[in-house]
Amino acid sequence: VRETTEQLAHPLSAEDAVAQSMPDASPTKWHLAHSTWFFERFVLRDLLNQRPISDAYDYLFNSYYEAVGARVARHARGLLTRPSLDEVQVYRGLVTGRVSRALEGADAAVLERVELGIQHEQQHQELILTDIKHLLSMNPTLPSYGTERAGVVGTALPALSFRGDPGGLVAIGADPAGGFCFDNEAPAHRVHLEPHALASRLVTNGEYLDFIRDGGYERAELWLSDGFHWVASNRIGAPLYWLDVASGAPREFTLGGCTPLDPSEPVCHVSYYEADAYARWAGARLPTEAEWEHAARARSVSGNLLESRRFHPGPAPHADTSQLFGDCWEWTQSAYLPYPGYRPLAGALGEYNGKFMCNQMVLKGGSCATPRSHLRASYRNFFPPAARWQFTGIRLARDT
Ligand SMILES: [Fe+2]
User: What is the pTM of this model?
Assistant: First the structure.
């Protein structure tokens, strides 16, 4: 996992790695350092009583742990020209070595904490890609991160269909005894579902273009009040990274640079508001997180994930038309809330998930930037409804 993070940073220059394009997106250098600090702080220092490598690093590389102390403001992470990228790489090597040595003869508490650090680092792998995409999109030359765009524009797609489910009392969530899960996925519990149906694949760029050309962004009746206000005040008229939408040849910025918009690929980089308005236009709704999880439980985690190194959503394959895992995180209509009986981790790590359970929506299924070993059907991602720099897409659902 540590090597994968470094491979993701490899195509970037030191300048690429230090700039910050917006408060939500952190510089690659900060991700490299913060994911290292997490191991140093919560494994080497808290559990093994090792001395700090640098007294400054708690301040520079703590993300949001109030119990750890004061820290650099999130929007100011791009001002950290020191330590240099080289110094951060040395820090990474030191901590990787110390944690590796600590694994020999480690007790269960250390092993559990190291696993949390690995899963945490995988979250930052996805953020490195989404944050660098946003940064490169700010450059007028729209440079490529380095991935090649394969694929044929306009691939023939399986028709969209809806798969019914009778509903009933279903099992949701994860039992920590059954393998790693974050605290927000537990406890496993039961949820009652009404009869419903889920779409067989994600909504495509071509379908979303039809919504735009039907005046979707101008029709208040399709939008939540907050969403219509967000559209007006930010002059939104298309997904993030779409260009020349009004022309006959729309384009899209990707990690492989600027390319013609492929109508067969899943629409991506839409906010919850856009996903919700599109669903209403299409005579459908977004799934609840329980409906999505119930459908995904029976499936293995496979699809267009980080390992495919495409770093862009692809057309639904014919062999398995579900697309439940990979390609785009799928907005659900469920607010991010604690499950019945939820208990945050003890100590500072209790701040990992629980304190964000307000004003955010749950997303499921992972994206083309999520490592496969990081995902589960019970995995709960969460973002505020206006966020769209993550690889976020749309699956439709219906009451039946
Ligand atoms: Fe983090």
Answer: 0.97
